[in-house]
Amino acid sequence: MSTVLPTVAPQARDVQSNDSEKGGLSPTISIASLRPPIELGTRRPFWRRPKQGLDSIATQASVFDVPETLEVYRPGPAYENAHRFDPDARWTWREEYAIVRKIDWRVMVWAFIMFFALDLDRLNISQANTDDFLQDLHMTTNDFNLGNSLFRLCFLIAELPSQLVSKRIGPDIWIPSQMVLWSLVSGGQYWLSGRASFLATRCLLGLMQGGFIPDVILYMSYYYTKTELPIRLAWFWVSNYMATLVGAFLATGILQLRQVTGRAGWRYLFLIEGVLTLLVGVASFFMMPPGPTQTKAWYRPNGWFNEREETIIVNRVLRDDPSKSDMHNRQGLTPKMMWSILKDWRMWPLYVLGLTFMIPVTPPQTYLTLLLRDLGFNTVQSNLLTVPSTVLGIVLLLVVSYISEIWDSRIGVIVVLQIWALPLLIALYTFNEHTSQWVYFVVITLITGFPDTHPIQVAWASTNSNSVGTRTVSASMYNMFVQTGSIVSSYVYRANDAPLYKRGNRALIGITVLNIVLYLFTYFFYREINTRRDSIWKSWSPQEQKRYLDTTTDKGSKKINFRFAY
């Protein structure tokens, strides 16, 4: 994981600027002058129990334990949880485990439900395809590709504006509003009449759903530490697979309404699932408090947490990452702040990986039901045959996420997706019209049941941001690149290349090899930065290190005492 020696609080950033990473600062800093260097975020791994027992102290070492750095990092009065900050607060593992379980039930479960609703509406277009959706609207595969591209383009365009709105008015207000808006459009697809209305609704859904995922991730970061968030994100993404799984069974029944009413079953699919999302969206207004110390409301007079629990939640998160107090949850970003964050070249390798890493498995995943129909399976069979890949995907997602935390490695685990996909894509490329449909099904199932490393990369980008402002923008930027990759993916399989998609699969093989090279580059990129910073940091005397902390205007991941995760 990334580590940080004390960073600078907002109120201490009004002194001289320097370009410390280039070595331009005369010998100046480590907290070694105060006591041995404190690495923030070095919490006990989640799978290990404390040796001293559950009633031993769980409070981690922090810059707040050192008088000289306490005032540098003390949360400002604008921080919404400042009244619960207490550098002398101590608590036991028993208390911490109980509170984390409580947060899981209150925050994580509802985040899971909201993401489930998003994916139910986002993925049901695939199930609609098994019910002669394209034929009913007199469209071709290329029209379908265009619709998917417009959806992702609008989703991409809405990412950053959505994050900025969420940061200004609060995710507790903006996220439920998004859900209500897109549920109305999703349900309205019942009345689709042709290509024009299909493309219009795809654009509207993209605009209204864009930014939802980084909004929820930012909201969850208010409650969880850096070591806890990746595993929660893994379970968060399980809802994506659950939506596919549940959606397949729902579609199996709902699409049969064509035989009962004479109207296309896909129309009822959009309408019913749109109504379900509307209900979740309305409920979210009541299920999302602004923050851990703001859970009381007229409909929840006692709140979720007592004063002791709020103190533990706030202090454990700040001890893990003091930068989380540098903005309050209703504070927007200025254009100057945004530009400074966008031009941070240290984050761009993660954005580039977001562009390419999912392309090898996205076309087979998107066209799974259509591929199954092309193989001769009927509507019911095609929907049910997506279940094995979904179950496999859930298992592998959780396995790689837990391994990443156990090994404390990002690239070493994330590259597994590419290694998994490469031989399967090569096999798919060798298939011809004489290949058994069941052999084809097995290979497609393994490809679409890939070990999804997306949650690890999202948490990786969040960890390497090292400030609330950077985290807000970088989450959107990363997801924008992911959506751009999805747009590229939608043009890999073309109608004139069906049904074997030889050209498309050859392109996917090449991109997979490229991704492996990009991961190797990113590994050495971050390792070199960390090595150079270590060299500069250790060359400074304790007094020089202290002076840097007191005077630097470096922010977020630019700080010389910050170490990138890789």
Automatic annotation (TrEMBL):
PROSITE patterns in UniProt: MFS
Protein name, as recorded: Major facilitator superfamily (MFS) profile domain-containing protein
Q: Which residue ranges does the record assign to the Major facilitator superfamily (MFS) profile domain?
A: 107-530
SUPFAM superfamilies tied to this protein: MFS general substrate transporter (SSF103473)
UniProt GO molecular function: transmembrane transporter activity
Q: Which organism is it from?
A: Ceriporiopsis subvermispora (strain B) (White-rot fungus)
| Transmembrane regions | 234-256, 268-288, 348-372, 384-404, 410-431, 438-456, 507-526
Keywords assigned by UniProt, alphabetized: Membrane, Transmembrane, Transmembrane helix, Transport
Which residue ranges are recorded for the region named Disordered?
Answer: 1-26
Q: Which cellular compartments is it found in?
A: Membrane
State the superkingdom: Eukaryota
